[in-house]
Amino acid sequence: MSSASSPPPSSQSPSPSPPLLHASRPRRPAVEALKDLLNRTLRIACSDGRVFVGTFVCVDKQLHIILANTDEYSMSKPEGRYVTMVMVPWRLVVTISVYGDSDDEGKLDVL
Amino acid sequence: MELPGGSQFKDVTQLFQDASREMDDDELLMVDGFTLYDAMSAVEIGDPRMDSGAPLPESQRQPDFDPLTPLLPEEVCWILDRSMACEMHWHAGNALAQTVYTCLYMHHLATIDLDSIPSEARRRFFDRGLPIQLTSLVIRSGVMGMVKCCDLAYRELVKGNVHDCEDWQGEKSDTSLLESVTPQRVMMLLGDAELWLSQDENRDVPFRTELLHRIQLRGILLRLFSLEMPRKLPFVVPLLAEARQLLALVRGQTIPPPQEASPALHAFDPRITRRLHSIMPMRPLIIPPQAETWNAVEGLLDGWEMTVGTLHASSLRWKLSRPPFIRSLTQTIFSDGSTIMDRFAVSWLVEHFFLELAHISFGHIVSLFEKNSFGSPSNSFEEFHSALTRLIVQHIWASYHNRPRQRRHSMKTVIDWHELYDHALAMTARTKPRDSADSRVLKCIPLAILHWRAGIARDIVLSGFELELHAPDERPFAYWYLSEILQTHEEVLKELLSAVPEDTPARNHLLVQEQYVAVLKEMSLAFFTILTCSSKFDPARRWSNFVVRYKWALRGRYKEISTPDPFAPNYRTFLREEKNIIEEEQGKRIQKALRLLDSTLPRLVQLGTLAEKDIALQLCRAEFTQHHLAGLILVSENVREHLVLLSGNTDTSTSSSSLEQLRVIWDLEVCPWFPKVEVPSHRIA
């Protein structure tokens, strides 16, 4: 997973912060684990019955989750339809799951 | 519904919640290369404006569509008519998913194929005493014909003559437009339907004639769309005549709308987008009523006719209201890149340019610029000829673009025309005339180019009004600058007319142009006079706005050209004129504007008569006189009336603001270039 090893985007950390602040920042295991999920395939089941399957590309603190290359599955279209890029707000999310990859299962289990 | 992907997914819901608690308020986790700008283009799930797949409220839900539900003949008629309405609404620039795809039969063409209809479904038709062929033959061939027509139009539109997402919508949402089915195959199916409807044993089928006419009209339209242009051009006229005849019949037939419980109503789903692959969210559209649809079909036929007429005309012009398909088709017919109108070499355009504008034969021009006794033209003339050819071809191409694109093209090339004018002046100055005929030709060459360029500069300013680009504060300058352009144009035309022989088509054309330019000049001066008021912005701010708005006329490149630009805007002169107008008494201003309009109105009437002789208006004479000139007359009369009212009420105590009280009303349908005015009632009382 290339993104997992790449440095976080500049917007994630306040740019003028001195190194001391970085050093004193508390460990954030969940954020690190979530970064590992970037570029992976997520399946988000929504409260309105729809399921979105796409590549996880972005999330913010409020958990607005952006999926790219997404397919939407619903009762009216159980075979799915392509809906490009979507942003699923947390209020609609019932469950989120990631497409399995044996290399990463260990990491997820730790959490 | 079983979750897609099965058991290969592992739950991470809790991880997201935990991470959210750890994240900073403004923190974002993103993949490399992903930006906030990218994030903004995501469709927000749950937002009814963007999320086409959101579950619908009960009131908006449509029952499941069963394409094998038996239908009454009048319901079949209605479905065919509405599918035509969908098709025309696509031609009007809407998306396929909002129009054509809403006809659900097009997604079930295999289901309603007679060979694949199960016996149980056949029995339903039999039990109701309704012929299954109404669905399997009439609806199927009619809808297939509609879809195939769209496919053939799509092939024309995609050529690049008109622009996807600007003039038309090309998104297919991964849905077939019967690309792999030949038009001949669909014509055969339409033929089968026609045959079935014509058979004696079906004579008692209600609405048989109505159905027959609709299937025949679709057949003709399909044949028109499938003609290979411009090779098959001679076939257009007879097909158009047939189509018009059938359209008149269909228009005259009254089809009752389906009853409330009719299954025909379920044959169209405006929210089909929720089930299609989509790149962008689309709202459901209301498809226009049938009367408008028949008007649109007629418009399409008119467009075809105009396109055919183009080939036989001596000059080209365009009409804005033509659908993108016709504008694209006209460009295809106009040139395939190597010939003009499938008949002439590209240089034909230059020959006609001088013949139609100055009555000069191309042979005469060439003889003047021969560099040696073998008759080969000089390098300078070759360069001039090639630049002029390029500019004319580009100009005609741009004439079939949409209006904003056409305006941009003019703004880009207006300087190229000035360069060409400079070239023409230098080239003709170097050439020694052999006799008076030569002198005439040498005089006319640069003037013809200047005349053409004046028309382009005028059109740029006027299209600014048409496209509603000018803020109220900018309008006085635009009208003043327009009057300056037209003043110079008038002088150019006078010069040109003095060198063009009497009783020639070129002279008749220039006489119309002279009058037309005079009318527009007087009208623009009248509007400058009545609309000018003290600006709320300081001169520096106005100057910077002016530089941006008129950058096309102020380019630095003009300084590199030895001949000064006769149409260069002079901001200082404008400020002086503006000051004079503002300082003038309102009563005098009103009288000045009235004098201008009093002179305009008889000129407009005279112009209508003169236009009869102008061969360049051959294809659009009625439109020019009945629509364009009539609009100018209407606006002039309206403004004149209100100014007379104002002048009657003007006294020293109230006049100071009376003109500023005029309310400007733009009616683009009546006249896109000049507004009507209204005086608030309390000012008149």
SSE layout and pairing:
The complex is a heterodimer of chains A (111) and B (685).
Chain A: H1 2-5, H2 19-24, H3 29-37, E1 41-46, E2 51-60, E3 65-73, E4 81-82, E5 86-88, E6 93-99, H4 102-110
Antiparallel strand pairs in A: 1-2, 1-6, 2-3, 3-4, 3-5
Chain B: E1 9-11, H1 13-22, E2 28-30, H2 36-40, E3 43-44, H3 73-91, H4 119-128, H5 133-157, H6 183-198, H7 208-225, H8 236-252, H9 290-312, H10 324-334, E4 339-340, E5 344-345, H11 348-358, H12 362-368, H13 379-399, H14 403-430, H15 436-466, H16 475-499, H17 505-531, H18 539-549, H19 571-583, H20 586-611, H21 621-649, E6 663-665, E7 676-678, H22 681-684
Antiparallel strand pairs in B: 4-5, 6-7
Helix pairs in contact in B: 3-5, 3-7, 3-9, 5-6, 5-7, 5-10, 6-7, 7-8, 8-9, 9-10, 11-15, 11-17, 13-14, 14-15, 15-16, 16-17, 17-20, 20-21
GO cellular component, one term (chain A): NatC complex
Region (Disordered) (chain A): 1-26
Protein name (chain A): Sm domain-containing protein
Structural description of this entry:
The complex is a heterodimer of chains A (111) and B (685). Chain A has one domain (29-110): SH3 type barrels. Chain A has four helices and six strands. Chain A has 111 residues and is of the alpha+beta class. Chain A is 25% helix and 33% strand. In chain A, strand 2 and strand 3 form a beta hairpin. The two termini of chain A are 19 Å apart. Chain B is an all-alpha fold. Among the domains of chain B are: 6-50, no CATH class; 72-256 and 286-302, no CATH class. Helices cover 56% and strands 3% of the residues of chain B. In chain B, the strands form two sheets. Chain B has a two-stranded antiparallel ribbon. In chain B, helix 3 runs parallel beside helix 5 (133-157), helix 7 (208-225) packs antiparallel against helix 8 (236-252) and helix 17 runs antiparallel to helix 20. The termini of chain B are far apart. At the A-B interface, helix 3, strand 1, strand 2, strand 3 and strand 4 of A face strand 1, helix 1, strand 2, helix 2 and strand 3 of B. Strand 6 (93-99) of chain A pairs antiparallel with strand 1 (9-11) of chain B, so a sheet runs across the interface.
